[in-house]
């Protein structure tokens, strides 16, 4: 069974930014020619995450508000006491971003049927940077049969 | 390696309703005859979700209260300003349901060992409709060896 | 395609305790000799969970505070009315632990590339006991090619 991977790059924006990466996943799927199988989507940073949901711009703003309510940046966090940790000079104070990441997903597996992602009508694969701006990567792995 | 899928249907109730779909997954597993492998369970709507936990009726009520506390239906959400979006006439105001969905899971992978789901003693695969009542579907994909 | 599993054991501490199980996963991977594929990590209890994030001790304390804020142990939960349920004598009052578990993950899939876990630089696979102390198990399944 072929198992093929690809790393995609995303340049993100300040604070929380959300990207619909379904087109890149779909393009990779077409390149592989796999007809029946799975795509593993894997977020490779501790302050990024995934969700599979509706790519509607106003909803994406609601999600940002929601995440900031759950894990406010201005709360006291032990991880942000940088003087008590051994860290590089440019270490960000981003405990809230880690907490948001753990609330969302790191790995998602999407089925492939007849050469297409078997997503529901309104579903997109969304990539979240929770501590931007940065250059980020997402790992894709497709396995299945031709 | 065989990769076999099945779509199951669930008729849901008003608001949040939760269904133990383990029996349907198990029945599908027995039909395939796979002895060693995985079941991918995939929620196909943006206001449904999955969790693997205890199917205890009082706990399921607690989960509903918990989700409503995290994402109250009565909060202001941009996604609910239907007059600012291009939507069908019967579009629901369901931003809270999307947020609940992203807090739970869209894809879960359950191992298969000796022809059985390798769930822990108290674990069931739970399907959540967060914006019912509707007819919903869940995608199952089994891969492995006989 | 080989599909090989292993169950690892973790002895946990009072309340919430968090363990970096990446070394055990990596050791299992080396034992299998798989070069290209996936590890499925599966939490087998309804009050344990997984997250893939940074194994930094102060952050792990922040996560505990965060989970206790989302689902306080002292809130009223129907699941904790033990006199209304048929339960063993030593049944714990742990509704909050179930809610925390559903907020985190039960299944995570980590890609394997060139014989190594394709985790990002700061990522570790973290196992949470949310209702310790207990003897717990985590299920690992590796599939792929040599």
Q: What's the level 1 CATH class of chain A?
A: Mainly Beta
Question: Oligomeric state of the chains?
Answer: homotrimer
Largest protein-protein interface: A-B, 31 and 30 residues
> Distance between the terminal alpha carbons of chain A, to the nearest Å?
9 Å
Structural class by SSE content of chain A: alpha+beta
Helix proportion range of chain A: 10-25%
How many strands appear in the DSSP assignment of chain A?
Answer: 8
What characteristic shape of chain A results from the CA principal axes?
A: elongated
Number of domains of chain A: 1
State the CATH architecture of chain A: Sandwich
Radius of gyration of chain A: 17 Å
At the fold tier of CATH, the topology name of chain A is Jelly Rolls
Order of helices and strands of chain A: EEHEEHHEEEE
Strand order of the largest sheet of chain A: 1-8-3-5-6
Number of helices of chain A: 3
How does this model look, in words?
3 copies of one chain form a homotrimer. Helices cover 23% and strands 40% of the residues of chain A. With 146 residues, the first copy, chain A, is an alpha+beta fold. Chain A has a single domain, classed as YjbQ-like (Jelly Rolls), CATH 2.60.120.460. Chain A starts with a strand and ends with a strand. Chains in contact: A-B, A-C, B-C. Chains A and B meet through strand 3, strand 4, helix 2 and strand 5 of A and helix 3 and strand 8 of B. Chains A, B, C: InterPro entries: UPF0047_YjbQ-like, YjbQ-like_sf.
């Amino acid at each position: 069974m072929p198992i093929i991977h690809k790393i995609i790059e995303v340049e993100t924006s300040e604070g929380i930014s959300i990207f619909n990466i379904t087109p890149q996943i779909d393009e990779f799927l077409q390149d592989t020619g796999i007809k029946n199988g799975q795509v593993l989507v894997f977020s490779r940073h501790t302050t990024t995450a995934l969700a599979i949901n509706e790519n509607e711009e106003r909803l994406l703003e609601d999600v940002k508000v929601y995440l900031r309510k759950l894990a406010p940046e201005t709360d006291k966090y032990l991880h942000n006491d940088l003087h008590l940790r051994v860290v590089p000079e440019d270490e960000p104070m981003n405990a809230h971003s880690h907490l948001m990441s753990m609330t969302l997903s790191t790995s998602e597996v999407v089925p492939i049927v007849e050469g297409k992602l078997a997503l529901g009508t309104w579903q997109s694969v969304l990539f979240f940077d929770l501590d931007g701006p940065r250059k980020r990567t997402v790992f894709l792995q497709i396995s299945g049969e031709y």
